[in-house]
Amino acid sequence: MEKMRMESVDITAQNIEKIAALFPNCITEAEGEDGKIKRVVNFDLLRQMLSGDVLEGDESYEFTWVGKKAAIVEANKPIRKTLRPCPEESVDWDTTENLYIEGDNLEVLKLLQESYLDSVKVIYIEIWSPVWKETEAA
């Protein structure tokens, strides 16, 4: 039986490896917050390697919000969680091809990426807030 990793993929590390494969001279080492040496991208050198026509400044079309950079960092961090089935709360547990998953959207999507790669056809995300529930009841 194959041993499960019990941790989501470290997307940042994977992306650094992909960049290293294409542009090895753009990868360097730096000391991490934990004091260990880690591989990092020299973005100035990478920009020079890609083109002289790099967009700089604020003028571009993009979907943005306050905290977007922190959200990208958070999305790339690995997590150590697992999905647990709840057969008693499910409909037709033994025969269904559908799963109902309740949890933090980002964490669940990370777990699905690792565990259900190439087997998910549709994902429906419903965002719930206690404020909305109170508004509906009023």
Summarize the structure.
This protein has helices spanning 11-22, 43-50, 68-76, 105-115, 130-137; strands at residues 27-31, 37-41. It has 138 residues and is mainly alpha-helical. The protein folds into two domains: 11-76, no CATH class; 87-137, no CATH class.
In terms of structural class, how would the helical and strand content be classed?
mainly alpha
* Number of β-strand runs: 2
Q: In which order are the strands of the major sheet placed?
A: 1-2
Number of domains: 2
Give me the Rg, rounded: 21 Å
Residue-averaged pLDDT? 79
Report low-confidence residues grouped into runs of 5 or more.
Answer: none
Give the termini distance in whole angstroms. Answer: 53 Å
Order of helices and strands: HEEHHHH
Label the overall shape: elongated
Number of helices: 5
